[in-house]
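Researcher: Hi, I'm a grad student and pretty new to this. My advisor asked me to get structures for two proteins we've been looking at. I'm not sure of the right format, so I'll just paste the first sequence and hope you can take it from there.
Model: That works fine. Here's the first sequence with its structure tokens right after it:
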Amino acid sequence: MLIREAIKLFIESRELDNCTAKGIRTYDERLRYFVGWLEANHGIEDLDDLRLDHLRGWIAHLKKHPSERTKQPLSDRTIHSYGKALLVFCHWIEQEEMIDKPISTRFKLPKFEKKFIPTFNTDDVEKLLAACEEGDETKPSLRKALTARNRAIVSLFLDTGIRLKELAGLRLRDIDKNAYVLLVHRKGNKWQQVPVSRDGFKPLHVYLTKHRPFLAQSDVAHKDDSVFLNSEGGALSYGGIESLFKRLKTRTGIDGKRVSPHNCRRYMATTQLRLGRSPLDVQRQMGHTTLSMTNEYASLTVEHLKKSHEMYSPLRAKDQDEEENIDDGYWNAD
């Protein structure tokens, strides 16, 4: 079987598994890039000719050659993601018994530096909420509506930790105003109920009851209508929310930190873990399938670590040793 044909079948299997459109596109682009390199440099087109050395050579090639799009060297994290896409493909062809012997067993993904990404503090949060004012001052009703919408968006991101795509996809039917719960379409085509605090829900309620009808230009609302609207009454898009956070970055003057929906998510996780919420509850709140990803956010809660370290500092061990220095037995001579 040709490698290109195997890739086509692999992509179809991802679609059957309800992989996201973005995920499928990423697999397709990176695997086609790999097979193009394989054909040009090794003349290999058949799956039976694929070897471990080719996988390792691909990673070495990525390390040595800049991106075709940006002309800049690929970061270690990007190279790791290219390798991961290839590894998933190799696991699949092995499970489907398309090749006689496994080739991925000794293929190791390159390590990459996990950089510290600073998150917001309480002052930053106040700045974000204060910077939500939007719109032409000569159109006060529209300005109030857009401002209320923005505050509801920022509040939900900070309070619930949901992802940008999840918030952009919210419909009116997904909001339970009595239980303070959102029905969120998670990764992997899963639906999950996500709780909202009273403080987080209040700006959303104000927007929906007092200002959304103005943006929609109608008092009639259908259950499948989008929650968040743009100034023309259409659904606020993924890109529209990204643009909002770019404007918030400029207005707040927050420096040295990413002003983005994902950093709101990071703030939610680190704050709740620092305040003592169960990691399992935080995991469910964020929609993580395992605790391993949640634990990465736990590593950012330095305040708790500082207090714990102060309590158990090795430099205090001497005092403790002196207090506990008692005789080993009832003798006093060797």
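Researcher: Oh nice, that was easy. Here's the second one.
Model: And its structure:
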Amino acid sequence: MCRLLLLLVLHLNLLDLSSSEDETLVILTLSPAEEDETTRKIGVYYHCPDCAPGDVLRVADEHQIFEKIIGDPRGFLRTDLRVSPESFSDITATILRNGELIYSSPVIDRANWMHDNKSILKYLSLPQLVIPGTHQSGAYDRPETHGIWNLCQDLSIEDQLTLGIRYIDVQPSCKRIEDQCQSFFMEYSLLEMLPMDAVFSEIKGFLNRTNEIVILSLSDFSSEFQSDEDHARFMEFIKHELADDLFSFNTTSHGWSTPLGKIWKAEKRLIISYNYGGPVDPTFGTGVQPFWCNCQRSDDLHVFFADPQKRKNWANRKIPSVDVVELIPGWQTVVPQDSSNSAESSPPFSFKAWTEEFSPKVCEWYHEQWNATSNVVVVDFFETTGVVDLAVHWNKKRGEDTMKKITSA
């Protein structure tokens, strides 16, 4: 009983964090994939309130180096350094003062960041974490999708997980056979992206080689799902395909508030969020409704997420709260106006380039402003945003705060 009361107190008071956003933090990002290029350019978000004039930011591996004298205490820099996603972890960032090291970016094993911090995260629930997620996770570039302008990711689902993503967003659809949903796949923009068993295979491949916990969100079902029976058939398919990995919510009275330690103990580490208004199998978590803004400008998106109703202390929530941090280009942006009278026609619209220009805002907002009120942060082309390393940083803060409360209770 005392332990239960302690966990309740922690649940209500977890995010009374000190103002650690004033600590120095440097986060590296990757530019979107370019055609015929195996490497990507490195970007740098830095926040250094204690930096002095003349301090030098250095980004390097054993083959290349970038240095820049820090002018402003915070900002984002694009470098000419290039690296493959597989070698991303070899890049380090440091800050030097008169040649002496005053900051070094932490080494993060992005494939195992949750379990590596198990000792301080095991008392937290999923709604109490900062969880990096991808929007339309299966809408990634591969030969059969090449040329689709509005793909949302560059890497496969398994590679997304390997680089630290822990929330996978999938829009299910099905092929109707004899007026029943009998063949399931992921859809995006009315296009068939991946067979659902391929989505599951990528997730299982990652879970089988790590001890990480993953949320799979199933929402925005296509109109091909026409009845409760269609959903029931899909849920049975999910349970059959994912039986070895699926954490069952009907084994716990805590639901989404189940501590991570209990999920690890169950040795079932895949959480399904099934977002449907009809009957849902009790194996699955209550569907998570995301906050999503049909915004074309970053200023409008900031106003949307800065709403106090969306920035409450997440420790009191019973289910995860999801911020879908993306801009939606209008047709006037995608389709240039008639340029027949101009000397040069406008270049074709690039969704990747358009997204990359906005991506530095993610670290700025979720580190400097909303660090204590964020939960699931979902983005396009996640490597450009630094959302994984930012999540690891703040989860350590929350975990350490939790342990202090336990030891002082």
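Researcher: Is there anything I should tell my advisor about the second?
Model: You could mention this: The chain has a mean pLDDT of 89.
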